[in-house]
Amino acid sequence: MDLFKRGKIGNVKLKNRIIMAPMGTKPTADGSYSDNAINYFEERAKGGVGLIITGANIVSTKYETRPENELSDFHNVEKLAVMIERCHHYGTKVFVQITPGLGRMVYADPYTPPYSASDEARSFWFPNLKCRMLTVDDIHYLTERMAYSASLAQAAGADGVELHGYGGYLLDQFHSSLWNKRKDEYGGSLENRLRFSTEIISAIHEKCGADFPVSMKFTAYHGIKGGRQLDEGVEMAKIFEKAGVSDLHVDVGCYEVWYKAITTVYEKPMHQIFAAKAVKAAVNIPVITQGKLNDPMDAEKVLQDGDADYVALAHQMLADPHWANKVKAGNFDQITPCIGCNECLLGGFSGKHYYCTVNPLCYAEKDYQLTPAMSKKRVLVIGGGPGGMEAALTAARRGFEVELWEKTTQLGGNMFVAGYPSFKVDVMKFVKFLRREINRLNVNVRYNMTATSENVLAGNFDKVILATGATSKVPPIEGVDNANQAEDYLVQSKQPGDDVVVIGGGLVGCETALDLSSRAKNVTVVEMLDDILQTGSHSKNNDLSLRDHLKDAQVKLDTGVKVKAITKDSVVIDDNGVEKKLPCDTAVVAAGYKSNDSLEEILEDKVDLTVVGDAVSPRKIMDAVHEAYHAIRVME
């Protein structure tokens, strides 16, 4: 496979063409790499990637607070050197990404204006704040600091550095006429707008030597009004090549359309390739591409078609750090798939570390390892949803004797429903992966098996995991019998008519509306709150993507209204005291879930019982998977 051909960036030889793309880690109090971060990178090196590119390391906190790790002084080198050395043990090279800052993307407070390329730019998070323009002296200071930080990375043993010039961050704010309105030598023409970056490249070469690789990650296409078009992105690539970069890491999007940059479950595979292909045709240096290349055959196709020289994976490497080794061995079906939920990103932006829904060991590679069972205890898992399957698999991996009882004829639970629409195929891939693992590990699954207190107690199990999930709520609405539940339409056991009203604008309601929009003429979502997607917590890029998909599908949103009644041909709503009828031939209820926890009270004093997932309370796939994993992990 082309993925496993050796490659070269600058003078650095790589063992293959698979790159772990930038994904930030949480620093220690002084900005250095934590032990967990070191273990995190080491595990990906052990998993077979050719090159790891770290997340951004800020070179100075003079103009903004530290967003992630800091590489500004000699004391930052120690832990970075440890991480690089451990990765080198596996033949993996490391590039350290460095940044002068986030600029208008800084999340500080609504009163402190961030610095940017010009004072006409506005804070992304607080749009009423006009930015402060960096002076020429400020630019020169940051240029020197970037070169110094590159020398620190070199001292730590890094094989190269990557410039953080993408995604609407500070360097990209200089690159773009959308945010850069300067009248001096750092504004105006494209060459002037790129001057900050090209001067940094020159300064690094002067400080670190011409042979020290400098990668440039830049955004070739923004995808927003007034943002960069691809033709300008191609011209940027030519300028960067002339400036002496070793390679180009091509990105797409910015925070206004965050899902174009950091992909979600709703995006199609290979969605950034068009930009890399255009850049590749215009330059003679290596090109790195990214954008949902989780499927090995998609990644391989990119290389075989000559659209790029290297493929970069970020979220997929969180989900399965051993992706490369599994692909090389031909074990495609054993790859734990990323489901595009972006709980990793949500965790980071919530002040936590980067969790992964499908990989409980992410960022806890040493802490949460499984140990072999000390005795052959018997474990019963009730319920075959994500929590139940994860519990059964974890028990089998530890060597316990395990039974999985599922009351239906198939495994998956509500995750099977969630993954059924075509735009949720990533979730369905995880369902199928768990099913394959259940079969591969020979877990004893008993289908059509309804658990009762009598048959559970009669089994005399040492441990019982209650993973019975949740069922849809039926709201107390007059005529609710004239409607059906969302899952009936998501799994296509029922087909909609022409005019559909979905009652409930949470995640399930909005995804149901989007799914039905391809099968109905008119779809309307009615929601009691003032906006949709307010009842759950999910990442901003997922939110933006789903909203834009709903808009593109012409789904109507009727918010701030209360449903009074459902008839055979309408949904009656109260809109600020005014009664209205929404004609429809299909009414769909998506009013949330309630836990199936009836066995808990009966069993809790009679067996060693742990309740996980939606049986505790209706939440996310991550809650079910992690709770199930740890319930078995801590068993003695």
Description of the molecule:
With 636 residues, the chain is α/β, with parallel strands linked by helices. Helix content is 33%, strand content 19%. Strands 3-4-7-10-11-12-13-14 form an eight-stranded parallel β-barrel, surrounded by seven helices. Strands 17-16-15-18-29 form a five-stranded parallel sheet. It is globular and about 75 Å long. The model has no long low-confidence stretch (mean pLDDT 96).
Task: Give the topology, please.
Layout: E1 7-9, E2 12-14, E3 18-20, H1 35-46, E4 51-53, E5 57-58, E6 69-70, H2 77-88, E7 93-99, E8 115-116, E9 132-133, H3 136-155, E10 160-165, H4 170-175, H5 190-193, H6 195-208, E11 214-221, H7 230-243, E12 247-252, H8 258-261, H9 273-280, E13 287-289, H10 296-304, E14 310-313, H11 315-319, H12 323-328, H13 343-349, E15 378-382, H14 386-398, E16 401-405, H15 413-418, H16 425-440, E17 444-446, H17 453-458, E18 463-466, E19 470-472, E20 484-485, H18 486-490, E21 499-503, H19 507-516, E22 522-527, H20 540-552, E23 556-559, E24 562-566, E25 570-575, E26 578-583, E27 586-589, E28 593-595, H21 598-603, E29 609-611, H22 621-633
Question: What is the distance, rounded to the nearest whole angstrom, between the alpha carbons of the first and last residues?
Answer: 44 Å
Low-pLDDT windows of residues: none
Which structural class do the helices and strands define? alpha/beta
Major sheet: order of its strands? 3-4-7-10-11-12-13-14
Task: Classify the oligomer.
Answer: single chain
Calculate Rg over CA atoms: 26 Å
* Count of beta strands: 29
The major beta sheet can be summarized as: 8 strands, parallel, barrel
- In round numbers, the mean pLDDT is 96
Instruction: Tally the helices.
Output: 22
Beta-sheet strand percentage? 15-25%
Shape: globular
Please give the share of residues in helix.
25-40%
